[in-house]
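Model it.
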Amino acid sequence: MPSRTGLVIMLTGFALVGLAVGLAFFNFPTTWPSSGDTGSVIPGLAEFVGSEAPDFELRTLDGEPLKLTDLRGRVVLLNFWATWCGPCRVEMPDLQARADRWADRLTIVGVNCDEPEADVRSFRDELGLTFPLVLDPGAKVQNLYRIVGYPTTVFVDAQGIVRAQHVGLMSPEQLDKYLTQMGLSG
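Modeled.
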């Protein structure tokens, strides 16, 4: 039987590991940056907030190229997701509603990580999604953005600057708060 001190150290270690796992995979929003604050304590994610979004070019399900820098002048919401992800499925209708609501100023791009095209197509059709879904073979863009869990949403302003990131399921209220901070309201 470990000593009392050993037991306390062991339990503290388990608690810290549990906290780290919880933060990485469950609803960990990064906050809106202010005066140099990156808004995140997750290593890798923080470096993008306040910086130019890393550019990429991927193909949509229709085979069309989609390049991030070609979307300058519009607010862009990058949603990293997978077909097997329950929280991803839950938030997709809210994303679709915002894509419809602000079609003139907002582009939502669903970045699917390395899944078969047929699975992604079936998911899109089942949920009636009309915003672009792009395929990320080999998870190259996911790795570029250092995605640690699904869903992860990256908010990019019209000038191409990452303004916020959210790891985990967003409530409709959280989504609207981020979009209001991006200048979309009404």
